[in-house]
Write a structure and sequence with these properties.
This protein has helices at residues 7-14, 18-27, 45-70; strands at 4-6, 33-35, 40-44. By secondary structure, it is of the alpha+beta class. The chain has a three-stranded antiparallel sheet with strand order 1-3-2. The longest helix has 26 residues, at 45-70. The chain is elongated and about 55 Å long.
Amino acid sequence: MRQFLTLPDVAEALNISMSQTRALINRGDLEGIQIGGRGQWRVEQAKLDEYIERLYAEQRQARDQTTEQKA
């Protein structure tokens, strides 16, 4: 079963503000969906995990490139 998080849950998980969380979604960096008549945002736990893994991969790549340039 899919698990969905509210934006405050996502903000807490990433230790960032609500405005930063909204900006991630608005830019398309983090995938979310709007649900219900009031259009409340939800982020699937799997999408949050993918976002975090993507950031780790980008950091590894940047670190590897820096190391190669120094060599």
